[in-house]
Write a structure and sequence with these properties.
The protein is of the alpha+beta class and 164 residues long. It is 16% helix and 18% strand. The longest helix has 15 residues, at 49-63.
Length: 164
């Protein structure tokens, strides 16, 4: 597999401020082998942990991230990790700290990226049907100390009803 490159990353197309880097990864590139021969970022599957670590390192290097993302153990729920309540098991995270990175992993679930128009607060939400039913997006927005009318939201790709 080739290293992480332009085919590994799709930038979000939305009017976010320039200081907000947002997008999704593809399976192109990466160092995983065998059944996971791709750009796998998930540590909760049977991929070699060293390959996942290397893929995450390559992502950080490619995007020139200032820090390692806070990778969540996602459980299809509605818990939200924040700067003041930094939990590991959650399906959303939000921050108002410059240089801190919110990340979620999705396969068929909906990735939701949120920022305020000034780019001072950001959030990433893993929105599966269970989380949506439990209002994970609303719970995340309620943790952001900004007026809702100042928010920008980007919905990433997700599985559609014809796949079921």
């Amino acid at each position: 597999m080739p290293p992480v490159n332009e085919q590994s990353w799709i930038p979000a197309q939305w009017p976010a401020p320039a200081n907000v880097v947002a997008g999704i990864t593809t399976r192109m590139g990466g160092s995983s082998q065998g059944d996971y021969a791709s750009f796998n970022l998930a540590s909760h599957v049977d991929d070699d942990p060293k390959s996942v670590e290397e893929n995450r390192r390559q992502l950080n290097e490619f995007l020139q991230l200032p820090a390692e993302p806070h990778w969540l153990e996602q459980v299809h729920g509605c818990a939200v990790a924040t700067d003041h309540h930094l939990i590991h098991t959650a399906d959303a995270s939000t921050t108002g700290l410059a240089g801190k990175i919110c990340a979620v992993m999705t396969a068929d679930c909906l990735p939701v990226l949120i920022t305020d128009k000034k780019g001072q607060y950001v959030a990433a939400v893993h929105a599966g049907w269970r989380g949506l039913e439990q209002q994970v997006i609303l719970r995340c927005i309620e943790k952001m100390p900004v007026a809702t009318e100042s928010l920008l939201v980007w919905l990433g790709p997700a599985i559609g009803p014809t796949a079921f």
